[in-house]
Specification:
497 residues
Length: 497
């Protein structure tokens, strides 16, 4: 009997391969960063070939760290799950596997003109009834259209059936197995899938000029898609979830009303709403949560925030304020509070609940008193303020009052941020024993598909609490801070003509 399940976690800034045992413990992990490409203001790209190279490196790296060592370890792995940065768009040649253009990253805003043109008929909610999504630069569909419209020869090749599209999950699975598939969670982020039929929508495809032949087959999140080649040859690839849905699954949020928040490059809160999609009136996304094999699909409400951990990277890379990301907490703790400043990181516009692509980042309330410690603290607080806005919207839409928030992602080890988050939400914030819940969720989906785990109860038994932060702030301070934040956000609108 195999002892392990593995997960490929292809994120916005790095790629990781993690091997888990039956109890959900990490046995081995390897990680590699990849280049961030910024050709113009608002444009963000990745090199898909570099991502595939990193993918192969981390597989070999993690396999080499397991005590038994390769090649015997490969036979001990029951299945591989894939989880990925969502919406990031790759178009490549079917015959050669050569991308026709760099991957256009989810944060990229170059499709603003396409979005504005689409919104002229029906406004921002033109497709929301079908797709659960507002018109926004965030999603894959307009990015595909941009590539077909702007890369010489791409449209002609696509119409001849010579090009394939995929979000990063599809790109990785295609390279691993030769199979062209995606799952319902990733498909729901393209703005091309009908939430009720779980199939590509012909009307939207026609409107955007996207040939259906480019698109992958839509599968469940947990089934055997194909057998891996290369370093992990012969292992079934059997799980596929967009990163935030994978974290929802890894946090064992299997009942309606259960929610998680992931603190990564961006910040993403998901609430399980059960077997029926819940339309949002408060600026949230209605999305797929997961679909396990032949079971009914589970839907979720999502609040997406573009820039959270990426703001810490910006302090490090663009300003040189800190040497490494983890230094931000020590710098923030050199001051008692934010010094009266608010940092609204609208570098890619604002996502939920505003959906304002015309917003741009700003630091407000500056005086001579302010120093770099205040800037670091305000940068951390921005993540907590944006999360509060999303939670308010989620409670308004769902009618469910959150009693605690399960958290995961790289920023949850920043204790100053987690305490401020608990204070601002006025509910306990809980970090699980295994914080790598995104990769764990993909591993769980793959393991269920091959019988490594038998049911949800077995997965729930693996979840354990590591740390809990309880609110300590008085109500008047909390609401005063939040009111000032809301005022600061309005100052960032209308920067882009």
């Amino acid at each position: 009997m195999p002892k392990y399940v593995a997960a490929m976690d292809q994120g916005t800034t790095s790629t990781r391969f993690i091997i888990f045992d039956h109890a959900g413990n990490i046995v081995a992990v390897d990680q590699r960063e990849h280049q961030q490409i910024y050709p113009k203001p608002g444009w963000v790209e990745h090199d898909p070939l570099e991502i595939w190279e990193r993918t192969q490196e981390v597989m070999r790296g993690a396999l080499g760290k397991v005590v038994s060592g390769p090649p015997s370890i490969v036979g001990e792995i029951a299945a591989i799950g894939i989880t990925n940065q969502r919406e990031t768009t790759v178009v490549w040649e079917k015959e050669t596997g050569r991308p026709v253009y760099n991957a256009i990253v989810w944060q990229d805003t170059r499709t603003d003109g396409i979005i504005n043109e689409l919104a002229k008929d029906g406004g921002q909610d033109r497709f929301r009834g079908k797709t659960g999504l507002p018109l926004a630069t965030y999603f894959s569909g307009p990015k595909i259209k941009w590539i077909l419209d702007n890369v010489r020869g791409a449209r002609e090749c696509a119409e001849k059936g010579e090009l394939l599209f995929g979000n990063i999950d599809t790109w990785v699975i295609w390279n691993l197995t030769g199979v062209h598939v995606t799952d319902v969670t990733n498909a729901s982020r393209t703005m091309l899938m009908d939430l009720s039929t779980l199939d590509w929508d012909e009307e939207i495809l026609k409107l955007l000029g996207i040939p259906r032949a480019m698109l992958p087959a839509i599968c469940s999140s947990s089934e055997v898609y194909g057998m891996a080649k290369g370093a992990v040859g012969g292992i079934p690839v059997a799980g596929d979830l967009g990163d935030q849905q994978a974290a929802l699954f890894g946090q064992t949020c299997y009942s309606p009303g259960e929610a998680k928040n992931t603190y990564g490059t961006g910040c993403f809160m998901l609430l399980n709403t059960g077997e029926k999609p819940v339309p949002s009136k408060s600026g949230l996304l209605t999305t797929l949560g997961y679909k396990i094999g032949k079971e009914e699909a589970i839907y979720a409400l999502e609040g997406s925030i573009a820039i959270t951990g990426a703001l810490v990277q910006w302090l490090r890379d663009n300003l040189g304020l800190i040497e490494k990301s983890s230094d931000v907490e020590a710098l923030a703790k050199t001051v008692q509070d934010n010094g009266g400043i608010y940092f609204v990181p609208a570098f890619s516009g604002l996502f939920a609940p505003y959906w304002r692509s015309d917003a741009r980042g700003a630091i407000l309330g500056m005086t001579r008193f302010v120093n770099k410690g205040h800037i670091a603290r305000a940068a951390l607080e921005a993540t907590a303020f944006q999360t509060r806005e999303v939670l308010d919207a989620m409670e308004a839409d769902s009618g469910v009052k959150l009693t605690a928030l399960k958290v995961d992602g790289g920023m949850v080890f920043n204790e100053t941020l987690m305490q401020f988050q608990a204070d601002l939400l006025n509910v306990p914030v809980i970090r699980p024993r295994v914080a790598e819940t995104t990769a764990l969720g993909a591993a769980y989906a793959a393991g269920l598909a091959v019988g490594f785990w038998k049911d949800y109860d077995e997965l729930r038994a693996n979840w354990g609490r590591d740390r809990e932060w309880k609110p300590q702030m008085d109500g008047s301070t909390r609401e005063n801070l939040y009111s000032n934040w809301k005022k600061a956000v309005t100052r960032t609108f209308d920067w882009v003509e």
